[in-house]
Design goal:
By secondary structure, the chain is α/β, with parallel strands linked by helices. It is built from 9 helices and 5 strands, in the order βαβααααββαααβα. The structure holds dephospho coenzyme A and adenosine-5'-triphosphate.
Length: about 200
């Protein structure tokens, strides 16, 4: 059965998880690139071994897992190190995404990825949905959620495709700057349309 794939994207803190949680409640399977990005650096993985070889053992916590806060501080302050990490992890993440998409069973499947357009993952998708908020809200919501500084979030935003470019590439745009309930009401309308599109493809 051919699969109808919705690419869901948005910058850090825009609301991808809030959106995909709701779609999951509708019975839609979610393939989440951020979740996969953690799986490919689990203890014992090739990914983690290469990171420890490159950055040194001090990049590991006492239990042998990756010190994510330390790696985040390094890569978003040093573009060359970020490129090195992206070159290592993005092919591994892409392979796992393809595998997860191939196994999906729901009416349609969502590929949620912050770097969907940056990594041209939209080419795997039938349709794309951008969850969008102004940068000030990305900063406010991410600092509150993660307990990180505005400067750290600004560095991450600077490493992502500018909002206007993403808006130009997306098929649909979901404004999440108001109350979440309003966003989810609009999402429900989009979801009905996606069910129809997926059905028509069969
Ligand atoms: C640097 C790491 C260890 C920091 O981990 P941490 O737990 O603090 O953050 P988390 O993984 O939850 O990511 C939070 C957000 O940061 C942004 N982000 C993460 N990696 C990148 C990147 N390479 N470039 C731009 N933005 C990124 C995304 O918006 C993401 O949703 C981690 O983000 C990582 O391994 N990044 C490289 C893999 C990657 O590109 N992941 C993005 C999904 S493809
Ligand atoms: N409409 C909204 N109003 C207020 N808070 C919101 C709204 N939407 C999401 N949030 C909150 O903002 C934060 C960021 O949302 P979410 O985690 O869904 O973003 P994300 O795009 O998945 O982020 P990341 O790229 O970092 O994984 C969360 O704490 C979430 O509860």
């Amino acid at each position: 059965m051919a699969k109808w794939i919705l690419g869901l994207t948005g910058g850090i803190g825009a609301g991808k998880t809030a959106i995909s949680d709701e779609l999951a409640r509708f019975g839609i399977e979610i393939v989440d690139a951020d979740v996969i990005a953690r799986q490919v650096v689990q203890p014992g993985s090739v990914g983690l071994r290469q990171i420890a070889a490159h950055f040194g053992k001090a990049i590991l916590l006492a239990d042998g897992s990756l010190d994510r806060a330390q790696l985040r501080a390094i890569i978003f302050a040093d573009a060359a190190q970020k490129t090195w990490l992206n070159n290592l992890l993005h092919p591994l993440i892409r392979t796992q995404i393809l595998e997860a998409l191939a196994h999906s069973q729901s009416a349609y499947v969502v590929l949620s990825a912050p770097l969907l357009f940056e990594n041209k993952l939209q080419t795997l998708c039938n349709h794309t949905l951008l969850v969008d908020v102004p940068v000030e809200l990305q900063l406010a919501r991410t600092t509150q959620r993660d307990g990180v500084t505005s400067e750290q979030v600004e560095q991450i935003i600077a490493a992502q495709m500018p909002r206007e470019q993403k808006r130009a590439l997306a098929d649909d745009i979901l404004d999440n700057s108001g109350a979440l309930a309003d966003t989810l009401a609009k999402l429900k309308q989009y979801h009905q349309g996606y069910l129809l599109k997926a059905q028509q493809q069969r």
